[in-house]
Design brief:
It is a single chain. This protein is mostly helical. Helix content is 56%, strand content 0%. It has a domain of 69 residues: 434 Repressor (Amino-terminal Domain). The two termini are 37 Å apart.
Length: 108
């Protein structure tokens, strides 16, 4: 499954790479990654680890902050609203789970 955030990140990386007039192969070489991996990242089909993202930023001669700056802007809205996931509790577990909650959560 592809997330909008990964597509957006891939677009940011691709734009930076193109500004530098680098091919995917050139960037991959700078980052010690495979060209097809860079391609997958730019398409948004890879969930990149923090360390790999650092390598890519360094390969582009930029920072993580620069690559992700528009994500922080007020215009950016996640495609899927963040909702709290419900938890299923088996009968008998309820009391111990409730006792584990902070006092202010138990009061409500």
């Amino acid at each position: 499954m592809t997330h909008v955030e990964l597509i957006w990140l891939g677009d940011s990386i691709k734009s930076s790479r193109r500004l530098l007039k680098l091919s995917q192969e050139d960037l991959a070489e700078r980052c010690d990654l495979h060209r097809t991996y860079i391609c997958d990242v730019e398409r948004g089909s890879r969930n990149v680890s923090f360390m790999t993202l650092l390598k890519i930023a360094q390969g582009l001669g930029t920072t993580l902050a620069r690559l992700t700056e528009s994500l922080e802007s007020a215009k950016y809205q996640p495609a899927i609203p963040i909702v709290q996931r419900e938890t299923t509790v088996r009968v008998g577990q309820g009391r111990s789970l409730i006792n584990a909650l902070p006092a202010r959560a138990r009061a409500s």
